[in-house]
TrEMBL record:
<comment type="similarity">
    <text>Belongs to the AzlC family.</text>
</comment>
<dbReference type="Pfam" id="PF03591">
    <property type="entry name" value="AzlC"/>
</dbReference>
<feature type="transmembrane region" description="Helical">
    <location>
        <begin position="187"/>
        <end position="206"/>
    </location>
</feature>
<keyword id="KW-0472">Membrane</keyword>
<feature type="transmembrane region" description="Helical">
    <location>
        <begin position="212"/>
        <end position="231"/>
    </location>
</feature>
<dbReference type="InterPro" id="IPR011606">
    <property type="entry name" value="Brnchd-chn_aa_trnsp_permease"/>
</dbReference>
<dbReference type="GO" id="GO:0005886">
    <property type="term" value="C:plasma membrane"/>
</dbReference>
<feature type="transmembrane region" description="Helical">
    <location>
        <begin position="160"/>
        <end position="180"/>
    </location>
</feature>
<feature type="transmembrane region" description="Helical">
    <location>
        <begin position="134"/>
        <end position="154"/>
    </location>
</feature>
<keyword id="KW-1003">Cell membrane</keyword>
<protein>
    <submittedName>
        <fullName>Branched-chain amino acid transporter AzlC</fullName>
    </submittedName>
</protein>
<feature type="transmembrane region" description="Helical">
    <location>
        <begin position="12"/>
        <end position="39"/>
    </location>
</feature>
<keyword id="KW-0813">Transport</keyword>
<dbReference type="GO" id="GO:1903785">
    <property type="term" value="P:L-valine transmembrane transport"/>
</dbReference>
<keyword id="KW-1133">Transmembrane helix</keyword>
<keyword id="KW-0812">Transmembrane</keyword>
Length: 239
């Protein structure tokens, strides 16, 4: 591997390591909850390997536990995971010229953490080449995806050994705080996040995942409007 690609891959690997503090308990929790809900180890692992999306996995599991119709389970999971379409749209200008097999692999391993890390890195170093960006994503992937699968298995097979009083669900909010906080560097970022959060909370009573589908685009539109306003203000200041 070329030195610049190796450097990018190493940066992705190292910068992803702190997320293990939340990914490990989160994946353990899914393994425990899934087997407690009646899934066997193979079915539980199928969730984590094929779906590879914690939020929708928990949502689907809850609906299955409530004996919801299959179509409702699928629709809810799809609604929650549609945020990945927004992630993909924002990454396309940055890695869209990469070979098809690389883009396909990125699509599979694209989770909230890899996206958050990648966008921070690409914004901080805008002159990175497409191969360097891909190398960064591939460097972070083993740290973020393999432990999710591995510790799901641990939770599914040894869940009964984990004390019931351990608050493993703390990992969910901490993960998202850790991803979002470093990205709130401008007024546009703060406005987008604020509108998305408020909208999601106000629409929390809608069917699972629907509030996120509304909040995400509203947040992006708000960010774009504020960024345009800020750019015009800077131009007037220079004039």
């Amino acid at each position: 591997m070329q030195p610049d690609l190796l450097r990018s891959a190493r940066a992705g690997f190292l910068q992803a390591l702190p997320f293990l503090l939340v990914l490990v308990p989160f994946s353990l929790l899914f393994g425990v909850v899934a087997t407690a809900a009646g899934l066997d180890v193979a079915q539980t692992m199928g969730f984590s390997v094929l779906v590879l999306a914690g939020a929708s996995q928990f949502s689907a599991l809850q609906l299955m536990t409530d004996h919801a119709p299959v179509l409702i389970v699928l629709a809810s999971s799809l609604a929650i995971n549609l945020r990945m379409a927004m992630y993909s749209a924002s990454l396309t200008p940055l890695i869209g010229s990469a070979p098809a097999w690389q883009r396909a692999l990125v699509a599979y391993v694209l989770i909230d953490q890899t996206y958050g890390l990648a966008m921070q890195r690409f914004e901080r170093y805008p002159r990175l080449s497409v191969p360097e960006r891909i190398a960064y994503l591939f460097g972070a992937t083993p740290v973020l995806c393999l432990p999710w699968m591995g510790f799901t298995y641990v939770g599914a097979t040894a869940g009964s050994l984990i004390p019931a009083g351990w608050p493993l669900d703390f990992a969910v909010p901490i993960t998202f705080f850790a991803m979002i906080a470093p990205m709130l560097r401008t007024l546009a970022h703060v406005a987008a996040a604020g509108v998305a959060i408020v909208t999601a909370l106000l629409l929390a009573g809608l069917p699972s995942g629907t509030n996120v589908l509304v909040a995400g685009p509203l947040g992006m539109v708000t960010g774009a409007v504020v960024e345009g306003w800020s750019a015009r203000r800077r131009l007037r200041g220079r004039g």
